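Q: what sequence does this backbone want?
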């Protein structure tokens, strides 16, 4: 069976199952929500108790929860193709920002290169090497991870 037809069959089955589940939830809410006649004063029903109100509210809450869950899944399905592109773009932007300290500390590293062993700028050279190496590593790995995606 081709992947396209498998996906189509699964999608149709999922839609049918969702429709059946929605109908059963709606039927359950209507059964729970069936209210007796109200009193002559027009307020609270005569023989309705607190647990029935609680059960009716729970059924309505469950129906609302299922509806919002369905909407959330629909939005997630719509945004799924953009997730990969957004991840790649995020990694590339992060790589550029990690490259900025390399550009800033590179001239300092070049200027103090003669003091690498013992000299007046020995400490500046070591700090510059550490910063340049760390951020160069982060930038390169960020671009490599973006390329693998």
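A:
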């Amino acid at each position: 069976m081709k992947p396209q037809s498998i996906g189509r069959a699964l999608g149709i089955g999922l839609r049918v199952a969702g429709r059946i589940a929605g109908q059963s939830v709606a039927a359950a809410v209507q059964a729970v929500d069936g209210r007796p006649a109200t009193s002559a004063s027009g307020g609270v029903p005569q023989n309705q108790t607190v647990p029935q109100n609680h059960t009716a509210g729970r059924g309505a809450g469950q129906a609302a929860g299922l509806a919002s869950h369905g909407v959330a899944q629909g939005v997630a399905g719509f945004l799924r193709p953009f997730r990969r592109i957004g991840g790649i773009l995020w990694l590339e932007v992060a790589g550029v920002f990690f490259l900025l300290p390399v550009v800033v500390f590179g001239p300092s590293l070049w200027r103090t290169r003669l003091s690498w062993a013992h000299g007046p700028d020995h400490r500046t050279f070591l700090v510059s090497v550490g910063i340049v190496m760390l951020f160069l590593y982060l930038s390169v790995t960020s671009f490599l991870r973006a390329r693998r995606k």
